[in-house]
Write a structure and sequence with these properties.
It contains ten helices and two strands; from the N terminus they run ααααααββαααα. It is mainly alpha-helical. Strands 1-2 form a two-stranded antiparallel sheet. Helix 5 packs parallel to helix 7, helix 7 packs antiparallel against helix 8 and helix 8 runs antiparallel to helix 9.
């Protein structure tokens, strides 16, 4: 077993000692295998929605969050031992880190793609169209902070650590205390360049703005408590909290689909199926009525 750890460590980290590797692997609660398992759950959930319902918008939203967990599983193959590791300078590590940050920037949009997919009310459909456009604009602004790093004035986080999620002095995916940690250089926030807090606003504000819609406030609170709040309880590392929340997102979606599965079949069921619990004869009778 120790030999396996040594070989795997040399493949990924290249130059660090076996003792240091063993310590890091022991401390990490999450793993490539766990990320792969959760991505499989996400893929199955996507398949179920796509094959059992005609709600392709919902399927696309679930598929998006599946890709995040798949990306995390892949990143474990190219992860750096810490932010000072030479693995941070490899092209694979950098590209995967950029993809991870891009995915994060698009999360509010696809969160509300899922919300929009669950209503047929024209009033709320129009509202969600505006919300989704704002999320795309906000996501582009967040990603521009990375593109402007080094061009616009950029705080030296090695001297003054950032209070923002993900922000670091170099581009890298490395081992956090329990899971992946992402370090992304970002230009300083100004009046025209938003902080990472814009992500939280775009993700959660619509739930509370639509408080009159049944269940929205509860959904928003559930998403927050078992997302960023729980991630903050698990680790104090601001570069790691986002990846832990991403890990839990598939579980959140799977739980949601479990509770609304009957509603999905009734409203968007394929092949004339109107209920998961009704027999075939009952479904035909309900359809005739």
């Amino acid at each position: 077993m120790k030999l396996v750890h040594v070989l795997n460590f040399e493949l990924v980290v290249l130059i660090f000692t076996v003792q240091k590797t063993h310590t890091h692997q022991t401390n990490m609660c999450f793993s490539m295998e766990m990320s792969a398992a959760f991505s499989a759950i996400g893929l199955f959930a996507t398949y179920w929605v796509y094959t059992k319902t005609s709600n392709t918008q919902l399927a696309s939203g679930v598929f998006f969050f599946f890709t995040m967990e798949l990306l995390q599983a892949v990143q474990y193959w190219f992860i750096a031992d810490d932010i000072n590791s030479p693995v941070c300078d490899t092209q694979a590590n950098k590209v995967l880190t950029v993809l991870g940050y891009l995915h994060i920037c698009l999360q509010p949009y696809f969160c509300h793609v899922i919300n929009a997919s669950l209503t047929r009310n024209p009033k709320y459909t129009d509202i969600y169209n505006v919300i989704k456009k704002l999320c795309l604009i906000g996501g582009a602004l967040l990603f521009s902070r990375f593109l402007l790093a080094g061009v616009w004035e950029t705080q030296d986080t090695t001297v003054m650590p950032s209070t923002e999620w993900l922000r670091g002095h170099k581009l890298c995916t490395f081992r956090g205390n329990y899971h992946l940690a992402w370090s992304v250089p970002m230009a300083d926030a100004t009046y025209v360049i938003p902080g990472v807090g814009l992500h939280a606003f775009l993700m959660f504000a619509p739930f509370f703005a639509l408080y009159e819609k049944k269940g929205m406030v509860i959904q928003g609170a559930f998403l927050f408590l078992f997302g960023p709040y729980m991630a903050g309880l698990i680790t104090a590392n601001l570069m790691e909290q986002a990846s832990i929340w991403c890990f839990f997102s598939i579980a959140q979606i799977a739980i949601m689909l479990f509770f609304i599965r009957e509603t999905l079949i009734i409203n968007w069921g394929k092949g004339g199926q109107q209920s998961l619990v009704a027999t075939k004869g009952e479904s035909k009778k309900a359809k005739a009525n």
